[in-house]
Amino acid sequence: MSKFIQLHLLTSYPPSNLNRDDLGRPKTARMGGSERLRVSSQSLKRNWRVSDLFESAMAGSIGTRTKKLGVVAAQQLQAKGVEKKNADEWAASIAKQFGKLKKDSLEIEQLAHVSPAEQQGVDQLVALLASENRAPQEEELKLLRADNSAVDIALFGRMLASSPEFNVEAACQVAHAISVHSVAVEDDYFTAVDDLNVAEDETGAGHIGEAGFAAALFYSYLCIDKEQLVENLAGNVELANCAIAALAEAAMKVSPKGKQNSFASRAYASYVLAEKGDQQPRSLSVAFLQPVYDEDQAGQAISKLEKQVDNFDKVYGACADARQHINAVTGEGSFDELIRFIAD
Hints:
The protein is an alpha+beta fold. It folds into two domains: 227 residues, no CATH class; 82 residues. It has eleven helices and eleven strands. Strands 1, 2, 3, 6, 7, 8, 9, 10 and 11 form a nine-stranded antiparallel sheet that branches. The chain has a two-stranded antiparallel sheet with strand order 4-5. Strand 2 and strand 3 form a beta hairpin. Helix 3 runs parallel beside helix 5. The longest helix has 20 residues. The chain is flat, with a radius of gyration of 24 Å. The protein starts with a strand and ends with a helix.
C-alpha cells in the first residue's frame, strides 16, 4: 500500500464567481508577480463533502458539522414532553461534551464535527432521558468516540480543544486552487425588469446591481496520507478505499456553488495526474510561477505541468512509484481506470 496519493488537476471555468471575498468579489492571490484567481481550500472541501456524489457514495459514514447540537437536543426533549427548563439544562450537559457553550445559549462556540456513532449516542440518550424524565448521569455523558467511522472526519480532521484525546489528525491536505494565468476581475452591471411596470411613466429597471466575475483555468492539488486515513478509520481499509474514490471523483466533477444560478459555471477537470508512492509529497504549482500566456491555455498548462514532473524527477530522483493521468482536452485515458488506480 502506497503511503501518499497525490492528485494534480487542471479545471477550466467560464465567467464565474465561485468563491467570494468579504466584498462579494472573486477571491484572488498574487503569485509569480501577477494577480491570480483563487478558490479557497475550505470552499473546495465543503463543496466536495456535501455534494450529492460524495454523500451518495459514503451514505451512513459522514459526520455533521454544527454548533446547534444542544439546540436540537432541547427541541427533541421538549417534543417528547420534557419541561423547557429541564430540557435546556439536560441538552446543555450533552452539548458541553463537544465544546464550550456560548454564554446563556445552547449553541457551541465552535463548529463541532460529530460522527454518526456520536450522533446516534446523543439521540439514544435524549430518548432515554425523555422516557425516564430525568437528568443525564455522568457516565451517560461520555458521548465522544475515538473509534471513528466518519470518513469526512477521517479525511479532514477534527479538533476539540476541551477534549484533545478525541482529536483526529487530517489525512487529506487540500491546496487553494489558483489560476495558471493572470486575471483581471471584471464587473457585471445588470438590471432586472419589473414585469408589472406597464404604465408609460414607469419605464426603466426595477433593480440595478453589480457582480464581480472572472474566468480561469485552475491548478488544484490534494494529498492523501492513506496510512493515516486507515488509522483514522480504525484499520478499515475497504472504507478508506471507498472514501478515497469518492473524494477523488468529487474533486474531478464537483464545482463550488458560488453564484451558480447566475453563471452556470459547472466544470469537470480537463486534466488529472494521480501519483502514488512513499516519497515526500510536493505540489507542482511552481510550474505556473510564470503565468501561461499561450492562446492554447489548456495545452500549454498541461505541457508545463508534465515538464515540471520530469524536472523534479531529474533532480530528486523518482518522486512517485506510479503515475496515471487522464486528458479530456485530447481524449486520453479513462476516468474509471484512474479511479481504480487511485483507490487501489
